[in-house]
């Protein structure tokens, strides 16, 4: 019974998608420490990531529960369908954000000072599609808190590489979220919701997504030259570029059948590739 409930909670917050920020956060952490930081720091960084990511997703499900109930694609989600009670989702959100606050306190003073900024982004994102097509970008900025926060947790300050990794993370997430949003264009327009696909049209939205991903690759390439990184990282970056090309090849304005594969499944692989190749490079090439 307990395991079944935990699986349901995990499904609600899309726990498996934690990879989307985890890879950038670990890369940033290892780069800041020039290797593995103290285990205590590693553990609290992971607690912060766990709390931030899952708290934000649980809150998003709460805020969007009425919208999700109207959308045929999302009506079967756990809150609209009644598999999870609203009170349970609220408790889960508070618990996760509590973990983030505790981790910030345990890491260093700057992490704690920036906690309100992190919470503001994590909470505000869920409301943005009600008034701006830039909601995908704001989601990306919220996710960018992972690598920036990990850098601060290790060094106690904000570094250039942290900002570059944060920007790459933001553009990557915004890019594939735009692709994901193409499947709700008609619903969003009917309900008065905002998104780049609904505002600019699917064709232009896919072009914008491509530009975001090209810039993200360029920023990761900057890290290769500036850090500097080695050939293992460069190979990983090449694989990521190929996967992102495939992502944009699979989805066209006339064929949206592969949206879920392109926006989620391929990007889970992208995240794993970045995590593995950046980690190996830092430990083997330095």
Word description of this protein:
The protein has a single domain, classed as Orthogonal Bundle (Tetracycline Repressor, domain 2), CATH 1.10.357.140. Helix content is 80%, strand content 0%. The chain has 15 helices and no strands. It is globular. The mean pLDDT is 92.
What is this structure's SSE topology?
Blueprint: H1 2-12, H2 19-33, H3 39-63, H4 65-70, H5 78-81, H6 86-107, H7 109-113, H8 115-128, H9 135-155, H10 160-181, H11 185-191, H12 196-200, H13 202-226, H14 231-250, H15 259-284
User: So how many helices?
Assistant: 15
Summed over residues and divided by their number, the pLDDT gives a mean of: 92
Ends distance: 48 Å
Secondary structure class reads mainly alpha
Based on DSSP secondary structure assignment, what is the total number of beta strands?
0
Sum up the overall morphology in one term: globular
Please state roughly what percent of the residues sit in beta strands, choosing from under 5%, 5-15%, 15-25%, 25-35%, 35-45% or over 45%: under 5%
Brief write-up:
The chain has about 290 residues and is mainly α. The protein has 15 helices and no strands.
Keywords summarizing the entry:
15 helices, mainly alpha, 286 residues, Tetracycline Repressor, domain 2, globular
